Amino acid sequence: MLNSPSAAGHIAITRVSKYFGKHKALDNVSLELKPGSVTVIIGPSGSGKSTLLRTINHLERVDEGFIQIDGDYIGYRREGDKLYELKEREILRQRVNVGYVFQNFNLFPHLTVLENLIEAPIAHGVPREQAVARAYALLEVVGLRHKAEAWSRHLSGGQQQRIAIARALALEPKVILFDEPTSALDPELVGEVLDVIKKLARSGTTLVVVTHEIGFAREVADNVVFMVDGRIVEQGSSEAVLNRPQHPRTRNFLSRVL
Ligand code: ADP
Ligand code: MG
Description:
GO terms for molecular function: ABC-type amino acid transporter activity; ATP binding; ATP hydrolysis activity. This protein is of the alpha/beta class and 258 residues long. The chain is built from nine helices and twelve strands. It has one domain (11-257): Rossmann fold (3-Layer(aba) Sandwich). A six-stranded mixed beta sheet has the order 8-9-10-3-11-12, with helices on both faces. Strands 2-1-4-5 form a four-stranded antiparallel beta sheet, with helices on one face. The chain has a two-stranded antiparallel ribbon with strand order 6-7. The longest helix has 14 residues, at 128-141.
């Protein structure tokens, strides 16, 4: 159920820059993520981590460079040497490949847990019965099958985030992006959410996780990327970046979060 059918979810970010007015939020970022890999992005507030995640599913348009998932240009189609921006409907179709988990869960509060999980699949044409069956299987994965009929607003923060992760999986994405998935949680609820993400880490889906949980990164990440001022200052295996950081900015940052 959790396994991707093939080695899909290869992300290639090539010389991407993004401006907000005159402010350069992303500055010539290049990054390649292998199918099924887990990448943790760390860096101080304002360094461009969320902006980078948002460009990966075209919630932000890049100003320079391009992003590909399994060769498809995100938000664009290529003709010869030119890229043409996709229409909204085509962008939505492309986004099915990319799940997104937000800091504040963003569940639909007026829907039950089950309804939260079947809404997108049904909107994408999955028959209701099939969507429900998959929803129950996903609830099993996040350990919340018994909450199917609960109102999402009645769940704890940790439970809501686990449901949000199940929802991100509902359309069988190739890639899941997590933007500080535990930073809105009380400390005692962080572990249950990280445990679910750890479980996904062995499923074949490509994961990109922005987090300050260095212990989690050490345990789960294949790659760690450190950003400052919209630039990647250092990247490499988690072992290299976390245990033997080369750049003084990385050392300084790690000494403050550890
Ligand atoms: P991080 O997630 O690392 O904290 P962000 O990607 O949110 O950083 O932000 C990077 C920079 O871009 C910050 O200086 C932020 O203020 C700016 N920024 C982000 N989103 C917007 C926006 N929609 N409009 C203007 N500036 C933005
Ligand atoms: Mg952010």
